[in-house]
Design brief:
The complex is a heterodimer of chains A (248) and B (139). Chain A has 9 helices and 7 strands; from the N terminus they run αββαβββββααααααα. Chain A is α+β, with helices and mostly antiparallel strands. Chain A has 2 domains: 5-115, Roll (Ubiquitin-like (UB roll)), CATH 3.10.20; 118-138 and 145-247, Orthogonal Bundle (Fumarate Reductase Iron-sulfur Protein, Chain B, domain 2), CATH 1.10.1060. A 5-stranded mixed β-sheet of chain A has the order 2-1-5-3-4, covered by helices on one side. The longest helix of chain A is centred in the last third of the chain and has 16 residues, at 232-247. Chain A is globular. The termini of chain A are far apart. The model of chain A has no long low-confidence stretch (mean pLDDT 94). Chain B is mostly helical. Chain B has a single domain (25-138), classed as Up-down Bundle (3 helical TM bundles of succinate and fumarate reductases), CATH 1.20.1300. Chain B starts with a helix and ends in a 7-residue tail after the last helix. The model of chain B has no long low-confidence stretch (mean pLDDT 90). The chains are: A alpha+beta (248), B mainly alpha (139). Chain A binds chain B through residues 26-28, 107-108, 110-111, 116, 118-119, 122-123, 126-127, 172, 175-181, 184, 205-206, 208-212, 214-215, 240, 243-244, 247, and chain B through 1-4, 6-8, 11, 13-18, 20, 22-31, 96, 99-101, 103.
């Protein structure tokens, strides 16, 4: 919807934004604690801009990850007012103040908003998220063609940016970091249902293991948390169904 | 003074590993939960209706009531199926919850051993009662 002159003026007016950040410095603290900050920002600015203002002008010791700052690299997933989201995709005007920002849950905090992503990426690597073919020894002499229908089969799960918002919103993952996690299953789905791929059986076997896809209890937190709008729980159910029918 | 690396080493998290023997146990356990859940829904509702809602409800359930009911092999099968499915369904659910929340391998083994022993004992006791039940014993 187009903004009229008054709306534009309001959007450009800087307001005081209060933030509560969960800080943890392993060299000094034993437990994380909240610290409060106030920055000036326009309502249409993103939460990431506020965090930048804190880091650049108020407290340079604040540690956070961000890279592209445009919702594609997946570096700045955080718990924002209790919900997982990307700080670069949430606008100040949409957040209740004080804005509470915490590191994503279920992974060990290394400093402030930075967590150790190792368990997340180990789960991801375990499902072999690459194209597996049965003729990889041979130099391909033509393109691997695919019909639009076959491409559409796994379209939703190609959108994943590995931000970990889904996996770290999962109550099963909070309790047990050995759970492979929704993001890994989404990325397995992307290849299991790709008509050009030949590793589906192998991936389904991996996801049938203990702490694999069948540990999912359809809490739907992942679907709610995904900043890319992937129907994560649906993808997990499709993987479970494929694994079950393979076993039957 | 602890550094980031010290903290990391101390809290080095566990993670999923595919480096294991393939097993479809979890697939079957998941499938069992779905099927037994659906069957139990009917069995338990019928059980509740018969035992608690008809007539004077639970007040009328005594030895004679049970003896009359178990004259019929169909009701014996009904009760044993409910016993078997509810015990396995419950025990399997608890097994999964234990895997979630009991992190220490030793504690996990202890809690699971207790669970399996209790489940096995209840199953044996219930089955023994059903098989050896003598309707003339009360007379």
């Amino acid at each position: 919807m187009a903004m009229d002159g008054k709306d534009m003026q309001l959007a450009a007016t800087e307001i005081d934004v209060r933030l509560r950040l969960l800080r943890f410095n392993p060299e000094r603290d034993t437990e994380p604690h909240f610290e409060e900050y106030t920055v000036k920002a326009q309502p249409m600015e993103r939460l990431l801009d506020c965090l930048h203002k804190i880091k650049w002008y108020q407290d340079s010791s604040l540690a956070l990850r961000r890279s592209c700052a445009h919702g594609i690299c997946g570096s700045d997933a955080m718990v924002i007012n209790g919900e997982n989201a990307l700080a670069c995709k949430v606008l100040v005007k949409d957040l209740k103040q004080p804005i509470t920002v915490e590191p994503i849950r279920g992974l060990p905090v290394m400093k402030d908003l930075i967590v150790d992503m190792d368990p997340f990426f180990q789960g991801y690597l375990a499902v072999k998220p690459w194209l597996i073919t049965d003729d990889h020894e041979r130099e391909p002499d033509r393109e691997r063609l695919q019909s639009p229908e076959d491409r559409a089969r796994y379209d939703d799960t190609t959108k994943c940016i590995l931000c970990a918002a889904c996996t770290t919103s999962c109550p099963i993952f909070w309790a047990d970091e050995e759970y492979v996690g929704p993001a890994a299953i989404v990325n397995a789905h992307r290849f299991i249902f790709d008509s050009r791929d030949r590793g589906g059986r192998e991936r389904l076997e991996i996801l049938s293991l203990k702490d694999g896809a069948f540990k999912c209890r359809t809490a739907f937190n992942c679907t709610y948390a995904c900043p890319r709008g992937i129907k994560v729980t649906k993808a997990i159910q499709e993987v479970k169904q494929a694994a079950l029918f393979k076993s039957l | 003074m602890a550094t980031v690396h010290d903290v990391y080493r101390k809290n080095k998290p566990k993670a999923f590993s595919a480096d294991r023997r393939p097993s479809s146990f979890e697939v079957w356990s998941w499938f069992f939960m779905r099927i037994s859940g659906i069957i139990l829904l009917f069995l338990v509702l019928i059980h509740l209706y018969i035992m608690h809602l008809i007539g004077e409800g639970v007040e009328r359930v005594d030895f004679a009531f049970v003896a009359a009911r178990w004259q019929n092999v169909g009701w014996k099968t009904f009760d044993w199926t409910m016993l078997f499915l509810s015990l396995l369904h419950g025990a399997n659910g608890l097994r999964i919850i234990i895997d979630d929340y009991v992190a220490s391998p030793r504690k996990r083994a202890a809690v699971k051993t207790t669970l399996y022993t209790a489940t096995g004992l209840l199953l044996i006791m219930g089955t023994a009662v059903l098989i050896t039940f003598d309707p003339r014993a009360g007379a």
